[in-house]
User: Which sequence fits this backbone?
């Protein structure tokens, strides 16, 4: 049982991992034995995150790059190649939220959300999968979706479209990469207490809606996503492919 969830000897790249859910995933995979490669865009957040992980004795490195920038992604993977660092696990977590009704939404805002929340998963996974295939040692790709991978609420259309795309991109990756022993699955977090949702938590009406819309009657906590991430990153899920696991307090299971 110990080896089933053991990530020792594995290297994991988690995008958007200097804070929030991404940091929780990185810390969790490090606790399971993985070497973790953090990604972010702000040096001060990266420094804080690395200090927290390294203080716990974990093997962690940071890479500042824009996950929607193909050239920047390729440059990072070429640097990893030169250092003989092989990415075994990718968690495509990077994402932004932009709340505005579509009638007022600018194309530039739509495109930015789609680029960061969806296209990034394609670009980073393609770079990692190319190398997994070449090394013939398989790998794990975990895409982070959302309740909005399944249903919509007003004012978050680009985020919802991107997260819906994440669900079917996950299936596409499974369809094409399973033959190379790469398992691609997704995690759909419910409403979780993170920086991105701070404004929602503080809104009394929204807070009541979240707590009354899932049978657990509460928001989730970042560390409640970690077990699912370790499961999908480990050999415990070697015959699971193309699935979304919703960690949502039962929200999507109930009317
Ligand atoms: C929102 C929130 C959601 C949550 C999460 C729900 O504005 O509705 O940001 O998108 O973050 O994705 O699963």
Assistant:
């Amino acid at each position: 049982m110990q080896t089933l969830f053991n990530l020792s000897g594995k290297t994991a790249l988690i995008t958007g991992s200097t804070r929030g859910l991404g940091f929780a995933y990185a810390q969790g995979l490090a606790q399971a034995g993985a070497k973790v490669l953090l990604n972010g865009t702000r040096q001060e957040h990266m420094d804080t995150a690395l200090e927290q992980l390294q203080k716990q004795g974990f093997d962690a490195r940071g890479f500042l790059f824009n996950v929607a920038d193909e050239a920047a992604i390729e440059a990072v993977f070429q640097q990893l190649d030169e250092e003989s660092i092989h990415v075994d696990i990718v968690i495509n977590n990077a994402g932004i939220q932009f709340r505005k009704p579509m009638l007022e939404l600018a194309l530039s805002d739509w495109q930015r959300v789609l680029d960061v929340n969806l296209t990034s998963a394609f670009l980073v996974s393609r770079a990692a999968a190319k190398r997994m295939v070449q090394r013939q040692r398989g790998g794990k790709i975990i895409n982070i979706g959302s309740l909005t991978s399944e249903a919509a609420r007003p004012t978050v259309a680009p985020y919802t479209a991107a997260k819906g795309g994440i669900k079917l991109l996950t299936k596409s990756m499974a369809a094409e990469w399973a033959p190379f022993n790469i398992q691609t699955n997704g995690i759909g977090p419910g409403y979780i207490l993170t920086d991105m949702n701070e404004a929602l938590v503080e809104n009394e009406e929204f807070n009541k809606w979240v707590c009354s819309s899932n049978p657990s009657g509460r928001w989730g906590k970042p560390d409640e996503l970690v077990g699912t991430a370790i499961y999908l990153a480990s050999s415990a899920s070697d015959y699971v492919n193309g699935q979304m696991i919703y960690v949502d307090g039962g929200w999507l299971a109930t009317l």
User: Anything to note?
Assistant: Residues 97, 99, 146-148, 153, 156, 159, 189-191, 196-197 surround D-gluconic acid (CB under 6 Å). Residues 64 and 224 are 27 Å apart (CA to CA). Helices lie at 20-31, 43-55, 70-82, 107-135, 157-177, 198-201, 204-213, 226-233.
